[in-house]
Design goal:
single chain; four-stranded antiparallel beta sheet; globular; about 30% strand; DNA Polymerase III, Chain A, domain 2; about 30% helix; alpha+beta
Length: about 130
């Protein structure tokens, strides 16, 4: 399971939209996906050195995307990050796209929630909201 504050999740979405407006659209995470028809607002759940949310707006030359690490899987704060990532995300690096419209519907339905939890298994990714 990976936990992110909703405020930080929204910051990632906002940054992706701002980058897209300034630089001509959205990036796509996989080859074979059409940037013209499939690129849309959202965020990427990325597993490599830790697990984090990544903005998907196109970037200017030299610009870095906005990143927010999962509470459980930030290499700066958790010395067990590699093992946690391997157990809950898998051993390989990877990326999963999460649509902004769906995230906004989910958070609107639970206005008292403070955190997004993402759970993965071999075949699915589940989103839930919690209040802390």
């Amino acid at each position: 399971m990976f936990t992110f504050s909703i405020a930080e999740m929204r910051a990632v979405l906002d940054r992706g939209r701002a980058d897209a407006d300034a630089n001509g659209g959205y990036r796509v995470p996989y080859q074979g996906i059409s940037p013209e028809t499939d690129a849309r607002p959202g965020l990427w759940l990325v597993g490599d050195e830790g697990v984090y949310l990544l903005s998907n707006g196109k970037l200017a030359e030299g610009q870095r995307p906005f990143v927010v690490y999962a509470e459980e899987c930030d290499p700066k704060t958790n010395p067990d990050t590699w093992h946690y990532k391997r157990r809950h995300f898998g051993g390989d690096d990877g990326v999963e796209f999460i649509d902004a419209v769906e995230l906004e519907r989910l958070t609107a339905a639970a206005p008292d929630a403070t955190h997004l939890q993402i759970t993965m298994d071999d075949t699915s990714l589940s989103l839930s909201l919690i209040r802390r």
